[in-house]
Amino acid sequence: MHVLVADRQTAGRGRRGRQWLSWEGASLTFSLLWRFAPGTPAPAGLSLAAGLALARALEQLGVEGVQLKWPNDVLVHGEKLAGILVELLPVRGRPPAAVIGIGLNLRLPADAAIPDQAGVTDLAAALGGEPPSRPVLLATILGEFHRLFDTYAAAGFPALRGAWEQRNAFAELPVAVRGESATLQGTCAGVDDDGALLLRTGDGVQRVLAGDVSLRPLLDGSR
């Protein structure tokens, strides 16, 4: 496992090419390179496993109300605390590798404006005081990544699915999933063993592989 930490990002990005904003000293941003063992099948649910590792690390540090929003956000009481971006790097003739980028808000400036992001929080607010130092945070997070990735490498995401479901921010809630060409609506029924979102609709349960999930109001008083 190789790790690169940035004190400040000037061209950070999130899913679908979105800009990831960070301010010097206000966040912990790093990328982690993980190489799969020879013969490992294509990874499934890797971004969810990464989110679970980060959630567990935050819980170790005393953060309460940690939730996971499919597929790559870590929330605290419904507000975004961290984001994750996973990119697979196929290497010809060698086992594949993944770069896992993580941005964790530590103490946002009072005048911070984040476009298209309504509810945002930081670690200082989540802890109600000064967050741990960046070295302590990084060591705690990487330790949890090591533990969870050992499990993931041996048994895949199915071994972690239950723990992810326990922190599912939208479990059994009405949601809208906005894709590239259409928006689906239904009830969040969790995730499957491959990490796909399960959406319960009038036509049955549908598997969603990509999209942006948000809560939607109940129009008829039922799910």
UniProtKB/TrEMBL annotation:
GO molecular function: ATP binding; biotin--[biotin carboxyl-carrier protein] ligase activity
Keyword Ligase found: yes
Ranges where the BPL/LPL catalytic domain occurs: 1-153
Superkingdom field: Bacteria
GO cellular component: cytoplasm
Keywords, in A-Z order: ATP-binding, Biotin, Ligase, Nucleotide-binding
Pfam families named among the record's database cross-references: BPL_C, BPL_LplA_LipB
EC numbers: 6.3.4.15
Catalysed transformations (reactions): biotin + L-lysyl-[protein] + ATP = N(6)-biotinyl-L-lysyl-[protein] + AMP + diphosphate + H(+)
Name of the featured protein: biotin--[biotin carboxyl-carrier protein] ligase
The organism of origin for this protein: Thauera aminoaromatica
